[in-house]
Amino acid sequence: MTATLTLFYDSRCPLCVAEMRRLAGRDRAGRLAFRDMHGEGFDAAAYGTTLAAMDAELHGVDASGRLLVGIDCIAAAYRAVGRGWLVWPLTVGWSKPLWRRAYRWFARNRYRASRWFGYADCRDGVCDARLR
Fold first, then answer.
1. Model confidence over 70-97: pLDDT tens digits?
2. Which residues touch 11 (CB under 8 Å, ≥6 apart)?
3. DSSP 3-state helix, strand, coil percentages of the chain (rounded to 5)?
4. How many domains is the chain built from?
5. Are 9 and 58 in contact (CB under 8 A)?
6. Residue 47 falls within a domain, yes or no?
7. Does residue 124 sit within a domain?
8. Any alpha helices (H) in 32-128, and if so which ranges?
9. Residue 129 lies in a domain
10. What's the domain range around 26?
């Protein structure tokens, strides 16, 4: 089956890589594809955005070419692997602005969170935990 959602992940973030591995492990139907945004030859402009924007929040592109950002991308990824029920609060209209702000804060602090959760010893704000 062809992937219905491609996720652009930060390979320098151990927590991010761990989450991509979890999603990949749940993806029995092959609906997800993963691209390292720090990988050789990666060009964010090909997706109509910048590397800085992708570095700020999770981005993905669906099968129709639509770019999904932040919590919309997270919700789509979890739905793709049959776990949409875990992220349904992200999709509730009145709470979306709160979740967006919370996620953006978390994304800005993902290297710190990687340390907090014991994923890696990151130095100078950079880690390397590529999805293999």
1. 999 999 999 999 998 888 888 888 889 9
2. 17, 36, 37, 38, 39, 128, 129, 130, 131
3. 50, 15, 35
4. 1
5. yes
6. yes
7. no
8. 51-56, 71-80, 84-91, 96-108, 110-116
9. no
10. 5-116
Per residue in 90-123, is it b (16+ CB within 10 Å) or e — as a string? beeeeebeebbeebeeebeebbebbeeeebbebe
pLDDT one-digit tens code per residue, 47-76 = 999 999 999 999 999 999 999 999 999 999
- In a domain, residue 128? The reply is no
* Rg of the chain (C-alpha set): 14
Residues 81 and 4: beta-carbon distance below 8 Å: no
Cα gap 90→125, rounded to integer Å: 28
- Helix/strand/coil for 16: helix
The pTM of the whole model exceeds 0.85: no
- Give exposure, 12-44, as e/b (b: 16+ Cβ within 10 Å): bbbbbbbbbeebeebbeeebbbbbbbbeeeeeb
- Collapsing DSSP states into helix, strand and coil, what is residue 110? helix
